[in-house]
Amino acid sequence: MELVEKELLTTIQNPMLPLTFQVRSRRQETKDTFTLEIEPVESGVEFKFLPGQFNMVYVFGVGEVPISISSDPNRWNRIAHTIRMVGVVTKAMGKLKKGDLLGIRGPFGSSWPIDRCSECDIVIVAGGIGLAPLRPAIYHILSNREKYNRVVLLYGARTPDDILYKNEIEKWRSRFDFEVYVTVDRGTTGWKGNVGVVTTLIPRAPFNPENTVAFVCGPEIMMRFTSLELLKRGVKEHNIFLSMERNMKCGIGLCGHCQFGPAFICKDGPVFSYSQIKDLIFKREI
Amino acid sequence: MEFETLEKLLREHPFFRDLKEEYLSLIVGCARNVFYKPGEFIFREGEQANEFYIIRDGKISLEVSAPGKKPIVIQTLESGEVLGWSWITPPYYWHFDARAIEPTKAIALDGRCLRNKCEEDHSLGYELLKRFITIVEQRLQATRIQLLDLYGAG
Ligand SMILES: Cc1cc2nc3c(=O)[nH]c(=O)nc-3n(C[C@H](O)[C@H](O)[C@H](O)COP(=O)(O)OP(=O)(O)OC[C@H]3O[C@@H](n4cnc5c(N)ncnc54)[C@H](O)[C@@H]3O)c2cc1C
Ligand code: FES
């Protein structure tokens, strides 16, 4: 199958007009990353999304950037965004407090093909902030656990202090039906877990490559190495899915800002199968 | 009896997967079972590298230390993996410290014994080198990615 799951209709009638959402809570995840829980201000709005989709998030008077939705897709309206402060807009988001307002356009884009297989193994490989767009898929998979065979999470962070959703990861780890492996690039004193890049977990992770669907999200170089390692293990090209990132403006396939070869990341992605984009991700000029 | 057990353990380890029986029975003559308690050093930087280790169960960290600083963990290795290749390359010294961080069962293979067998039988030598080069390549790739500091580059 070449197609990733079809996007939902956007909630907003006019996808260029933001809806106003209010910050309900703010949680600091790591030194530079935080999670905002937000809700529509207007009553009667039903905000549904699929795992892997993103919103264009507008900080009034500052600017608008694409941010993936990181909450449970079964929980409508109160949604979460996990954001890393890197520049003007994301730093302004970092200053928002409970009660502040934001503009939201979305949800946009393709989603993780969570219903692509039944009885298959699912391998989720996340690097850094890449765990955020995968978390809705994890929630969905865990609440429909009986549909899948083995479910494995391989998560790599820079240091132990950079691990996202620490408490949640601990809860996941204690489940018997979810195999969670965390590794860091740089160990610190007191860290008893794995040290090494996330790709080193792939050869020894417990899954049957013949019957595995893999979801990968992280920095692009990490996704390239991860794909090669998954292929080496025997996972099929069309069963590997990656979430791509490019700068965006309109979010709906009009402006061309997010062009990726013949595709637009906002409209045709962000989730693509490896077979769809293998000729593009190794090219420098794309 | 012990030889039989060791042979079985070696045959089941991913590193020796599909190795010809005749080679396995040569190699087993250079093998012994070992156990390390958490915190125990398996080898230290600068020591003679006379063995390598097939990890059966447990976890090991590879560390570098500098005076006045806490040791830095470069990598951890677990069951199914192999520790050490300095025994193949002269002058046969370890470049890192290796320490068990969990109770660890392993099979130690005598490097001198194996080097002699490889000299006598180049086909065995080639077979072992092919297996080691795969590991060296994996570690080199991993080290390169680690150097890129992917998640840090904001
Ligand atoms: C589909 C999609 C989903 C995304 N989901 C998330 C998410 O869930 N959480 C999240 O935190 N971000 C996410 N991003 C990235 C986010 O959109 C960017 O970090 C944001 O646009 C940066 O805007 P800024 O104004 O803060 O930084 P700018 O002022 O535009 O950039 C400032 C500096 O940061 C660097 N920079 C810009 N973007 C990134 C980046 N992604 N990573 C590292 N450095 C960067 C720039 O090169 C520049 O040096 C997503 C992007 C896409 C396309
Ligand atoms: S952001 Fe405008 S086309 Fe994708």
Describe this structure in words.
By secondary structure, chain A is of the alpha/beta class. Chain A has two domains: 19-108, Beta Barrel (Elongation Factor Tu (Ef-tu), domain 3); 114-243, 3-Layer(aba) Sandwich (Rossmann fold). Chain A has helices at residues 88-94, 131-143, 166-174, 220-233, 265-268, 274-281, and strands at 19-28, 33-40, 54-59, 63-68, 79-84, 101-108, 121-127, 151-157, 179-184, 194-195, 212-217, 240-243, 259-260, 263-264, 271-273. In chain A, the strands form three sheets. Chain A has a seven-stranded mixed sheet, with helices on both faces. In chain A, helix 3 links the parallel strand 8 and strand 9. Chain A is globular, with a radius of gyration of 18 Å. Chain A starts with 18 loop residues before the first strand and ends in a 5-residue tail after the last helix. In chain A, 47% of the residues are buried. Chain B is of the alpha+beta class and 154 residues long. Chain B has a single domain, classed as Jelly Rolls. Chain B contains four helices and eight strands, in the order H-H-E-E-E-E-E-E-E-E-H-H. A four-stranded antiparallel sheet of chain B has the order 1-8-3-6. Chain B has a four-stranded antiparallel sheet with strand order 2-7-4-5, with no helix packed on it. In chain B, a hairpin with a 7-residue loop joins strand 4 (59-64) and strand 5 (72-78). The N and C termini of chain B lie far apart (58 Å). The relative contact order of chain B is 0.19. The model of chain B has no long low-confidence stretch (mean pLDDT 89). Bound molecules: flavin-adenine dinucleotide and FE2/S2 (inorganic) cluster (FES). FE2/S2 (inorganic) cluster (FES) is lined by residues 248-251, 253-258, 264, 266 of chain A.
